[in-house]
């Protein structure tokens, strides 16, 4: 079974618990901090991946490092350590955030542009694409990409809307080539 499928199962369980206790926002905040800690602290990953250490030693570290998080978050982390699945924490967090966003009608978008977008441009993109995708809110993550000559490319989930000059020139070239045949 793939890691993402397993991560999704854990995320669904935590999401249902959070929904039942009406603390989804708190869980999301905690999980984003947990993911950041795991991604930025290689020694933590090495410690949890060390086969010579007992499961109890690893769980004690989790209890100490994440003592300020909710019981639900901490128990999920402890369960992942017990099942030797601490390497999937980032995937679990991504799945949890995705489920929470879907439940609230929120989508995340990566917008690639040659320069930083202004607030007005960001607002326009949010309005147009939230309406197009029939969602309440579109959260934009602006990524400055110098390879974008002009225009923007938007990735929302697995959909890509490419309005870059580079892509438009490629389409024009293809149309000219096929028209001359």
TrEMBL record:
Keyword Cell membrane set for record: yes
InterPro entries assigned: ATP_synth_OSCP/delta_N_sf (IPR026015), ATPase_OSCP/d_CS (IPR020781), ATPase_OSCP/dsu (IPR000711)
Location relative to the cell: Cell membrane; Membrane
Topological category with respect to the lipid bilayer: Peripheral membrane protein
Keywords tagged on the record: ATP synthesis, Cell membrane, CF(1), Hydrogen ion transport, Ion transport, Membrane, Transport
Entry-linked PANTHER family: ATP SYNTHASE DELTA CHAIN (PTHR11910)
Entries under HAMAP family matching the protein: ATP_synth_delta_bact
Function: This protein is part of the stalk that links CF(0) to CF(1). It either transmits conformational changes from CF(0) to CF(1) or is implicated in proton conduction.
Similarity comment text for this entry: Belongs to the ATPase delta chain family.
Protein name listed in UniProt: ATP synthase subunit delta
Natural source organism: Piscibacillus salipiscarius
């Amino acid at each position: 079974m793939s890691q993402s499928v397993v991560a999704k199962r854990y995320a669904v369980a935590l999401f249902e618990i959070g929904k039942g206790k009406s603390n989804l926002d708190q869980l999301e905040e905690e999980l984003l901090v947990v993911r950041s800690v795991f991604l930025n602290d290689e020694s933590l990953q090495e410690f949890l991946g060390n086969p010579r250490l007992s499961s109890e030693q690893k769980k004690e570290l989790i209890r100490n490092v994440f003592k300020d998080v909710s019981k639900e978050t901490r128990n999920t982390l402890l369960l992942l350590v017990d099942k030797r699945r601490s390497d999937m924490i980032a995937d679990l967090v991504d799945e949890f955030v995705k489920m929470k966003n879907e439940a609230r009608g929120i989508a995340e978008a990566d917008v690639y542009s040659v320069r930083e977008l202004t607030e007005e441009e960001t607002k326009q993109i949010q309005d147009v694409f939230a309406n197009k995708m029939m969602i309440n809110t579109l959260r934009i993550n602006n990524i400055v990409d110098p390879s974008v000559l002009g225009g923007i490319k938007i990735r929302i989930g697995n959909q890509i809307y490419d309005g870059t000059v580079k892509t438009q020139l490629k389409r024009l070239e293809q149309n000219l080539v096929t028209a001359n045949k």
